[in-house]
Prior knowledge:
Layout (H helix, E strand, L loop, with lengths): L2 H24 L8 E5 L5 H9 L4 E4 L2 H10 L7 E4 L8 H7 L2 E5 L2 H14 L3 E8 L9 E2 L6 H12 L4 E7 L12 H17 L7 E3 L6 H6 L4 E4 L1 H4 L5
Parallel strand pairs: 1-2, 1-9, 2-3, 3-4, 4-5, 5-6, 5-7, 7-8
Helix pairs in contact: 1-2, 4-5
The protein binds pyridoxal-5'-phosphate.
Amino acid sequence: MEVSTVTTIAQRYERILARMARAAQRVGRRPEEVRLVVVVKGQPLPRIQAVVEAGARDLGENYPEQALPKMQALAQVPDLRWHMIGHLQRRKAKIVAQYFYMMHSVDGLRAAQALEKRLAQQDRTLPVLLEFNVGGEAQKHGWPAHDEAAWPALADAIAPVLEFPHLQVQGLMTVPPWRDDPEAVRPFFRRLRRLRDFLARRFPRHTWEHLSMGMSHDFEVAIEEGATFVRIGSAILGPRPG
Length: 242
Ligand SMILES: *Cc1c(COP(=O)(O)O)cnc(C)c1O
């Protein structure tokens, strides 16, 4: 890989961290409250190595089987944390149960069941976030959460997931509708935060501390609205090839 590419990725990584810190400070939050997950899906290995060299330790992947060779190639980095952020095909649950640090995208009861089963077999617990569809788009994954009047029923629907002994439910995740203007995404981030507050009142024994929201073009708005994880790929690693 060319030196210039390594430099560019390191610079972009640093600049994103600085923008994250400023966004947090604008709303009186501490920069340490927000963690950056660098999304490596579809990215060539040299780019991923460059961002790890720049200091990134939280990496996000949508496809567990595609994470495996990357994990192997980076096995000498001792403290890497792999975050699963994509829709889980149940036959891939074993990989997530075995190798991932956190699962952001538990998007239904069946995914939760598949994961619980594999985690039980491995005698391992996993921090997970529940994914909600806050924009009402048919093609998006997650429990439907567009209609606030339906939240009491939604709480009943997720209640069984909270009982799985090997899943540590720690918060919520969303992929909001695309808007050219990041400001126009703000209401969706706000809705996820309100849903978090609603669930925290309803299920006080769980912490609900995490909100995983915000991507390359809207992460600053997400941080202003309470994100504790932002998931950023192309703004750091460049456009995904192919
Ligand atoms: C691809 C992806 C991202 C990162 O998107 P960028 O626009 O490249 O920052 C974040 N979250 C999820 C769930 C994704 O699939």
